[in-house]
Model the fold of this input.
Amino acid sequence: MKLVMKKELERICNAALEKQGYSKEDAARISEVLIATDMFGIHSHGTKNLYMYIEKMKQGGIDIKADPEFIVEGPAFAVLDAKDCIGMKGTRIAIDKAVKLAKETGVAYVGVKNSCHFGAGTFYVAEMAKQGMFGMIMSNVDPNMAVPGGKGMTLGNNPIAYAFPRKGQHPITFDIALSVVAALKINKAKMYHQEIPDSWMVDPDGIPTTNPQYYQEGGALLPMGGHKGYGFSLLVDALSGFMTSGNTCKDIESWCFNLPNKNRVSHAIICIDISKVNPDGHFEDIEEDYLQYILNSPKAKGTDHLMVPGQREWEKYDKDEANGVRIPEDVADSLLKLADSINEKIDWRDIDE
Done:
């Protein structure tokens, strides 16, 4: 594991993006999402992917010069055509719009079409919560799940994240994909030739399997809770794809397996100004009373303490903010390739996990 200061990560990531032609402001806003994601400990969606995003730019899969445009606007809603820009750029524009509209009307919906992988939803919903909002974001993705009773990759494990503010503390944040487990866990088992629980995926015939080698070879992930994950996957496509006249999962190609091709995912953002909907100001008191009720509920044998959603991520974030960002070796390897590509060296050091 490596330890690198946040400012050093910003320097490397910003330099790599600016070399591709991004303005200093855009480079900083993109890098901020990726670095914060590493600080949350969601390393599969953080700076590790910047090298691949830039390769996708070079091969035409991301339009560096894209200027996202709002094609629908109303008092409490909008739709953004991201025009194949990098996901973080378009999504941050959409988040800013959602907050602005919610401050005016109390609630807002902003949809995004023709976007690219935006990383982890935690960053975006936390940004809304820090401004006194309830925030939710979701995105469709390329097919990787089977329909219950079906076979093959038909549904996307479309991620959903939400956050709401907490008085005097970090927001409550929750961020999941809709499969039983992330594809990352399947790929890791595949790499090390390990068996997996048969509740994670099905083989090419739609039969539960313990063999991860079937993934990307006719097999498919299973939705969490069976019909429940299926229903939520459809909801995400409805709010993001149907609502924006954008792509649904059946029309989406993987952002990372087909670098020259456009990803063209669709997102949906919902933002509520709590101060407008709850003008008596009791939201935070009721919230804290309820959270303490949860945290003080009976613990199972061997459990030291209970946690609220997002607590583990915020604890890592605070530690990294104070002492430097801890990144695993696979992330370090990708950052090293990124730095080499722009003739830069990274100032970091080895640490024990």
User: Anything to note?
Assistant: The chain has three domains: 1-58+314-353, 65-177+223-308, 180-222.
